[in-house]
Amino acid sequence: MEWVWLSIFTNICLAVFIPWADDNPFVGLETPQDKKEVLPPLIPPSELDNSSRSLKKKGQIPEYVIDNCPLVYLYSEEKYWPSDIAEYVTHFDIKDAQGNNVTDPLEALTLQNLQQDYYYTLANGTHTNISSDDTFLTSRDDFDIDPKWLLGSRPEYGTGHIKNGPAVLVVMDKGNGWVDAFWFYFYPFNLGPYIMGYGPWGNHVGDWEHSLVRFYQGKPKYIWMSAHGGGSAYRFEAVEKFKKLRRRNGKLTPEIVQRPIIFSARGTHANYASAGQHAHDVPFFFMPLSDFTDRGPMWDPSMNYYAYVFDGEKIIPSSDREKTIGISWLYFNGHWGDRKLPWNDSRQRWCPVQWRYIDGPTGPLNKNLPRISLCPHFAWWNFWRGCPARRLIKKGEGLDAEKNDLIGDNCGILLYRVRPRWLRSLFRIVTWRGVLCFIMDYFTG
Description:
Layout: H1 2-17, H2 63-67, E1 71-73, H3 85-88, E2 92-96, E3 117-121, E4 127-131, E5 135-139, E6 167-175, E7 178-190, E8 204-216, E9 219-227, E10 230-235, E11 241-248, E12 251-264, E13 271-272, E14 276-279, E15 290-293, E16 298-299, E17 305-310, E18 315-317, H4 320-325, E19 350-351, E20 354-355, E21 393-394, E22 407-408, H5 421-430, H6 434-444
């Protein structure tokens, strides 16, 4: 017991009497935004008028959106790569919640068959009209044996181009100089996590992930990246960048741009800002349920994408390519994959917190694109609707974790503001990991 108290006393003395033992690693990392830059508010798209619009040319994608398109590090041992939604849907029928065919099973499905509402004939000969909310893309193949179309395509080495895996870009005007660029990443299958070595759990056919880059007067200010039911928001200057040659009309120029980096987790494709092991859908680090990221193949979505401008009601295709595939698929509110398998299906399994196969996801317009907050929605406990943008990267854990000047202390910076020093040192001992650290990290970033 004496040794414990001696250790505590020694730590306090070091922090009080030896200056370098109490260095603040965040000194020198302050940015212009730390000086309380005052910017005008965002305006909901439905309330915009000609005087407040940021995008003056109808349907045009600003060049700065492409210059700041995130680069995605896919996991080195990834099995389910990005895919083309136009090719993906050809392997499905559309069915309602009762398993009735909504579309003709004898005809190949196309993106034009995806609509907001359906009028169809039931097996008993009666007709019905339903919203697409109650429909599922239902695989014609047994997805449990990994048909080839379920695996997607790897990015080309060196360029990051995926010929058969276009991303989807949706740009929204938020007024007063603000513009949101949503980059959607589609994967044909989501492989869920393992819990204590058992699983995978929470698998589903089809997987939509996305990131948001928010601009003010053409300059990127914030970035948000999806992860399961939530995600993370960062100041744009906080995330790691990668130098790439600027492209104009598909051709390289000698100009260099700094592109933000996102790390896509193995199987789940959840997005993070650093390499390593990340807590999966829990408020603070929980090792048995984790995502894993590393610097595997780099995907450059700006080399192949479908682009649209959305004003909250009307969707405008940006080129002839998007006009060819139409816009009806964006209004499809159904699930982009099979319905959760019934308990008596031989492929289904259950653990106390999850099933092996669950419902497929919904599409891009179901991600609350008109939002003013960086976050699309909030957890039940977040009753104050807070979505702070971190000023330092939250680092991963484990063998793949990295340490550099961009990555902050996961316990937050609040401790560096505590005075006197002996009290600060005491807090450091008491708050190692745990809930209090999570709260400090949430509010300080």
